[in-house]
Amino acid sequence: MIEIVSRERCIACDKCVEVCPTGVFERGPDGVPLIARQSDCQTCFMCEAYCPADALFVAPRAHPLPEPPDEADLAGRGLLGSYRRQIGWGHGRTPGALLAVGPPLPDAGGAVPAASPANVIIS
């Protein structure tokens, strides 16, 4: 179940809001998403997987933790955004690396364009 949206790490990109299948989040007044409907969380980890800033923590259980987790402890243990890393998404990904979506594709004539920021793979 979603437990933390880190205000310090969040870049207000709304990826978590967009990918959540049950609408758990609402955009906060300052742009940082709020956990508005925690009980609707299906523990699917989509929000954590898509977060480019490792600002989320989803506990691998279907019910809220008895005590709110300590964000500093989770960050120190590398657990914020750990699901994304476990599935191999975006090794070394940073907010500016979201342009990297794959290898350059050939144009209609079969030529592959020279590397540019929009077609460089970051691994």
From TrEMBL:
Question: In which domain of life is the source organism classified?
Answer: Bacteria
> Does Iron-sulfur show up as a keyword for this record?
yes
**4Fe-4S ferredoxin-type domain location, by residue?**
1-30, 31-61
One GO MF annotation is: 4 iron, 4 sulfur cluster binding
Family matches, as InterPro entries? 4Fe4S_Fe-S-bd (IPR017896), 4Fe4S_Fe_S_CS (IPR017900), Fe-S_Ferredoxin (IPR050572)
Recorded coiled-coil stretches: none
Keywords tagged on the record = 4Fe-4S, Iron, Iron-sulfur, Metal-binding
PANTHER family, alphabetized: ADENYLYLSULFATE REDUCTASE, BETA SUBUNIT, BLR5484 PROTEIN
- Name this polypeptide is given: 4Fe-4S ferredoxin-type domain-containing protein
Provide the species name: Planobispora takensis
